[in-house]
Structure formats: structure tokens, C-alpha cells
């Protein structure tokens, strides 16, 4: 029976890891649609490069520093998967699968960071910063929370990474946005294909069940089903919460806002999915969506964050992490065995204090480390492409080919479309 459970858990976690890795496809579609056509190919192939860098850097160094046996602060063995990983002994799956699952998480954090680089960073910056982030920076907070470090020993609750994954990625994106400065506004900065944006958002939503439910790393007691439930409810509330706030504010059902509401809710419930009751999940999802929208408008006045990476992943990550200080249910705390009940259940301010400390540490380490390394790159090799390269687009500048090929412009003559339901429509071809 033990062998059967081992095989079932291993298969379950492998499937979860593959779902989370598929989030790279979701990010690729969402980013491509949200950005301009002249950068579409660059954004798409960047996902392949980013995932490849993450895999090798995490295998060589990052996984060992995060989870290998060693000190409270960092692992001293486990590099290249050689050594012991007693911090992960609680999961009844092979070390290979544990690595793949954790790799999928750090790859998501790195994909989030790229939001701040979009449409103006050199391709070389992706490679160099990716190595640093995955091998050195990310493991500091990951070990502190998930591998017996300071925050974990204090009982910090972050089930699947609102702080460890999303806040760190959001802070890195913010630092890149600050150092790179705004994009040149020689044309509209609007996204070119919001169908891709929506499809990317849906892919991320579906794959997120691997992110959250997979973090149980077991099918034995069926608890993964409960985690999936709270994830679904929070996300639905986020979508409708975003729709409501943008309708009130702009009188239009803005498509990117609805998608960002979905993502903000997913980010927030990632920490809380195993600790809160369904009603609380709905509140957390809706609150995160509204905060994502509000802060994206505020941030736009000061920085050019093309994908609202900090609002979606940073702000929502903070909300989801802090929410546990209020909403953590005693019943679920007993099941997970982590931390204590939240303030609304008579738990006092203790858990809220731990969660706030975790947020602060993640922001300082991810933000400070990212800023220092990106500044070093900026003064040495340079982070930003030239103005000419930015104007022609990174598809041509970095890859020598346009994602959509040459589009021949037509003269301004009416084009008659086929009759639809008995009527016809005339449109003008694009102007030269």
C-alpha cells in the first residue's frame, strides 16, 4: 500500500509540475497580446530562453541553496542534485519530482520579473539577470519560508508562494521598470491583440490549480480538492470584482482589467488557499482585484510597468500574505500544522505580525538585490536597447525578423465584406 501511495503522489506532483510549467505558455500569450506587435516574437521566444536559464541555474545552484541541507540561511549541499534535502522529507515523492515542482515555481517568479523589462531591455539582460535571480536571489526567501529558515520557524503561512514567488517577482519587475525608465512614446503603447491576452489569462487560471493544489504534494487525504475549491472561488470573485470596479470607474468593461483581476486574485489566494474558509477566499479574491486595478492606475503616474507586474503580483502578493493574519481558520491551521489562527478568529496579532515581517523581508531582499544587480548591469553592459532599436521593435532589432512577417499596406479603398444576416458592411483599408 505504501508503494502504491508513493507512485500516486509522485504522479500527482509530476502532473502539477507540468501544469505550472505550462504557465510559461500562459505568460507568453498574455504578454504578447498586451504588448505591441513589433515586439511579439521577442516576447514569445523570451519565454523559452527564460525557462531554459531557470532550469540550469536552479539545478546547478538554486535548488541546493533553497532546500539542501546546511545552515538556517542557505544550503551547503544539494548542488547539481547531489546531497540531502531533509527539508523536503515531508513530501512522499522522489527528489527528481520535488526538483521539477520547485523549478516550476522559480520559473514563474522569473517570468513575472520580465514584465518590468518589456519592450526596451536587451536580450542579454534576460540571461544574466535570470541566472542571478534563480541561482542567488530567489533561494534566500524560499529557504527562509519553506525550508526551516527564519520565517518558517516563526510560523509564516505562505502555502504556495504569494510572497516567495509572486512578491519577489513583482519587486524585481518594479526595480527593472525604475532603472530602465519609460518606453518611448512615439506611437500608441496599447496592446495589439487582446484575444491573446484573454487566452493567456485563461491558461494561467487553469494551470494555477497545479500551483496551489499541487502544493499539497499528496493525494492521500484529498485536501488538494479543498485547495482547488478556494482557488476557484477567489479567482471568480476577482474577475467579477475587477469588472465591477472598472465599470464604475470607466463605464467600460476593459478587457486587460478583467484579466488582471483574475491574476491578482490568483496571486492573493496562493498563500491563503489552504488556510481560509470559502467565504474568506471570495473576499480575498475580490479585494485583490480591486487593489490591483487601483494601484495600477496610481503606479502609471510614476513608472511605466507595461504588464502591471507589480500591481498584479507585488500588491496582490502582499494582500494575500497579510490576509492570513486576519482570515487564517483554526480548523485549517490544525490541518496544515503551520502558524496560528488569524485575528478574526481570536488569534490576536501574532500571525499578522509574522506575515508582515515576511512581506517586509521579501520586499527588501528581492527589491534590494534586484536593484543592485540591475544597476551593475546598467553601468557595465547597459540594460536598454538604443532608441532606434526600440522604435523599429525588438523583433527586428534582436532577432532580425518580424513575428508577423511583412504586412503589405493597401490604398484607402472601400472593401466590401460578405453579407451577414442580410446586411453588408464597408470598411476602409489601413492608411499608408
From TrEMBL:
The keyword Ligase does not apply. Residues 12-404 form the Ammonium transporter AmtB-like domain. It is a multi-pass membrane protein. It comes from the Bacteria. The chain crosses the membrane at residues 6-27, 48-67, 99-118, 125-147, 159-180, 192-211, 223-246, 258-276, 282-300, 307-328, 348-374. It is found in: Cell membrane; Membrane. Residues 410-432 are annotated as: Disordered. InterPro entries: Ammonium/urea_transptr (IPR029020), Ammonium_transpt (IPR001905), Ammonium_transpt_CS (IPR018047), NH4_transpt_AmtB-like_dom (IPR024041). Keywords: Ammonia transport, Membrane, Transmembrane, Transmembrane helix, Transport. The keyword Nucleus does not apply. Residues 423-432 have a biased composition (Polar residues). Belongs to the ammonia transporter channel (TC 1.A.11.2) family. This is Ammonium transporter.
Amino acid at each position: 500500500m505504501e508503494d502504491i501511495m508513493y507512485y500516486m503522489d509522485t504522479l500527482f506532483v509530476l502532473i502539477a509540475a507540468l501544469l505550472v510549467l505550462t504557465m510559461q505558455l500562459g505568460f507568453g500569450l498574455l504578454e504578447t497580446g498586451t504588448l505591441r506587435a513589433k515586439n511579439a516574437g521577442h516576447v514569445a521566444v523570451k519565454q523559452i530562453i527564460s525557462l531554459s536559464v531557470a532550469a540550469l541555474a536552479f539545478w546547478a545552484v538554486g535548488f541546493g541553496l533553497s532546500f539542501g541541507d546546511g545552515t538556517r540561511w542557505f544550503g551547503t549541499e544539494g548542488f547539481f542534485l547531489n546531497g540531502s534535502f531533509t527539508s523536503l522529507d515531508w513530501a512522499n515523492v522522489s527528489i527528481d519530482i520535488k526538483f521539477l515542482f520547485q523549478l516550476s515555481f522559480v520559473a514563474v517568479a522569473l517570468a513575472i520579473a520580465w514584465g518590468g523589462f518589456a519592450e526596451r531591455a536587451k536580450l542579454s539582460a534576460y540571461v544574466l539577470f535570470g541566472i542571478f535571480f534563480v541561482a542567488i536571489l530567489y533561494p534566500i526567501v524560499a529557504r527562509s519560508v519553506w525550508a526551516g529558515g527564519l520565517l518558517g520557524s516563526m510560523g509564516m503561512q505562505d502555502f504556495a508562494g504569494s510572497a516567495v514567488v509572486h512578491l519577489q517577482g513583482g519587486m524585481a519587475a518594479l526595480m527593472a521598470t525604475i532603472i530602465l525608465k519609460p518606453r518611448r512614446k512615439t506611437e500608441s503603447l496599447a496592446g495589439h491583440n487582446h484575444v491573446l491576452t484573454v487566452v493567456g489569462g485563461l491558461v494561467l487560471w487553469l494551470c494555477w490549480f497545479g500551483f496551489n493544489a499541487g502544493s499539497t504534494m499528496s493525494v492521500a487525504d484529498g485536501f488538494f480538492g479543498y485547495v482547488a475549491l478556494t482557488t476557484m472561488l477567489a479567482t471568480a470573485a476577482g474577475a467579477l470584482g475587477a469588472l465591477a470596479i472598472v465599470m464604475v470607474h470607466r463605464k467600460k468593461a476593459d478587457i486587460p482589467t478583467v484579466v488582471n483581476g483574475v491574476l491578482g486574485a490568483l496571486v492573493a489566494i496562493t498563500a491563503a488557499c489552504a488556510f481560509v474558509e470559502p467565504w474568506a477566499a471570495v473576499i480575498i479574491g475580490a479585494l485583490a482585484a480591486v487593489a490591483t486595478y487601483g494601484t495600477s492606475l496610481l503606479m502609471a503616474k510614476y513608472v511605466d510597468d507595461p504588464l502591471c507586474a507589480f500591481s498584479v503580483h507585488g500588491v496582490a502578493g502582499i494582500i494575500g500574505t497579510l490576509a492570513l493574519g486576519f482570515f487564517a481558520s483554526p480548523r485549517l491551521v490544525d490541518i496544515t500544522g503551520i502558524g496560528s489562527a488569524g485575528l478574526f478568529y481570536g488569534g490576536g496579532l501574532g500571525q499578522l505580525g509574522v506575515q508582515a515581517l515576511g512581506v517586509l523581508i521579501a520586499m527588501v531582499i528581492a527589491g534590494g538585490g534586484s536593484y543592485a544587480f540591475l544597476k551593475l548591469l546598467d553601468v557595465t553592459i547597459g540594460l536598454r536597447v538604443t532608441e532606434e532599436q526600440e522604435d523599429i521593435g525588438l523583433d527586428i532589432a534582436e532577432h532580425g525578423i518580424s513575428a508577423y512577417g511583412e504586412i503589405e499596406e493597401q490604398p484607402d479603398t472601400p472593401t466590401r465584406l460578405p453579407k451577414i444576416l442580410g446586411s453588408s458592411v464597408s470598411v476602409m483599408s489601413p492608411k499608408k
